[in-house]
Specification:
mainly beta, 2 helices, nine-stranded mixed β-sheet, UDP N-Acetylglucosamine Acyltransferase, domain 1, 183 residues, single chain
């Protein structure tokens, strides 16, 4: 069962493979050869590029841009107005264009208004703070924020789970500074 807001107000290419219980909202575009898993919600004004894959139970909020051949894992959350890029040297008519789409591993969350540069991998369970500019790969369970995004400790969870989720770099930062939250 698919639920599209209204076929007159969005575009889903006939070659897209859409799972069960998928919701695609107003003014969204799903291009050719996209694969969308089960229980996915794609917000209004979102573009999903040709050949992209979106895993089960993922939520993509409104105003998101996913370039062609992006990979989004299962149980991911992408907040409103997030932009993923795939061209390191953007120029109109660039014959040397080489696409470098993003890879989002299972369970990651990407904060509102953030921008991810080409070819970036966001690790499983990672958290990107709102408004961040992600310029390099984020490790699994990493927590980054800022411009450029840097790894920080995070306390949005119970204290006993806190150290288990941190990468070694973030754990060292926490030990040195005592910082435990994203500000």
């Amino acid at each position: 069962m698919h639920q599209f807001s209204n076929d007159a107000f969005n575009f889903v290419d006939k070659t897209a493979r859409i799972g069960q219980n998928v919701k695609i909202w107003h003014f969204s575009i799903v291009l050719a050869d996209v694969t969308i898993g089960d229980n996915v919600s794609i917000g209004s004004r979102t573009e999903v590029g040709r050949g992209s894959t979106i895993g089960d139970n993922t939520r993509i909020s409104s105003g998101v841009f996913l370039p062609s051949n992006s990979v989004v894992g299962k149980n991911c959350f992408i907040a409103p107005n997030v932009t993923f890029t795939d061209d390191r040297y953007p120029r109109a008519g660039n014959d040397a264009y080489f696409a470098q789409p993003p890879i989002l591993e299972d369970g990651c969350s990407v904060g509102a208004g953030s921008v991810t540069l080409p070819g970036i991998r966001i690790g499983a369970g990672a958290m990107i703070g709102a408004g961040s500019v992600v310029t390099k790969d984020v490790p699994p369970k990493g927590h980054v924020r800022g411009e450029p995004a840097r790894e920080k400790a995070y306390s949005g969870i119970h204290q006993e789970e806190f150290h288990e989720l941190l990468t070694p770099q973030a754990l060292e930062h926490y030990r040195k500074t005592g910082e435990t939250r994203i500000v």
